[in-house]
Amino acid sequence: MYRSLLILISMFLFTHCQQVILEEELEESSQFGGNITSDLGPYFLTFQEEARSYGIDIDYESSNVTATLQQINNGNVAGTCTTNGHNLRDIVIDQSFWDNASHLLKEMVIFHELGHCILGRGHFEGQFSNGICQSIMRSGLGTCIDAYTNNNRDYFIDELFLESD
Ligand SMILES: [Zn+2]
To answer: CA dist 28 to 23, 32, 38, 60, 69, Å?
Structure first.
C-alpha cells in the first residue's frame, strides 16, 4: 500500500518536472528578439550570424521583425515579406511548404525573405550559362534553376550579403 503510494507520488513529481523543463525550453527558444515563432528561430539566428561576418548587425527586436508559420494558399508561394522598411517587417512562411521542405530549402526561403525584409533587396533573375540562378533573390517566376546545395551555399551567402547596399 505504502509502496504504490510512493510510486504514484514519484511519478507525479517526475511528470511535473518534465513539464517545467519543457516550459523553460519553450521560453528560451522564443528569445530571438522580435516576435519570431520558435520553429523559425534557428534559421533567423543563422542569418544573424552570417550577417555579422559581413559586418551587418541585425537586431530583430529593434527592427520590429515578426515571423510566423501559416497557410499561404497562393500557388507555390513558400514565403512572404511585408515591409515598409521601418516599423513593419512581417515574414510569413507557408506551413505546408515547411512540413515538407529540407533544411537547406527552408534556409533558402527564409534567407530570401530576410533579403527583402532586412537587407532591402529586390528580386534578381540573373543566371549562369548553365541555367543556374545567380542569386537566391530570384523571384521563382523566372527561368533559372535553384541550386542552393551544401557545395554552393558559400557562394549564395556571399552574393546575398555582398550585393546588398
Ligand atoms: Zn521574393
So the answer is: 9, 9, 9, 16, 19
Residue 97 lies in a domain: yes
CA 52 to ligand 1 center in whole angstroms: 22
In a domain, 17, yes or no: no
Q: How far is the CA of 91 from the centre of ligand 1 (A)?
A: 11
pTM to 2 decimals?
0.80
Q: Tell how far the Cα of 62 is from the centroid of ligand 1, in angstroms.
A: 23
Q: Which domain holds residue 55?
A: 31-162
Residue 36 belongs to some domain of the structure: yes
Over residues 70-102, the pLDDT tens digits come to 999 998 899 999 998 788 999 999 999 999 999
- The residue that leads in pLDDT, 15 or 133, is 133
* Residue 86 falls inside a structural domain: yes
Q: Does residue 36 contact residue 66 with C-beta atoms inside 8 Å?
A: yes
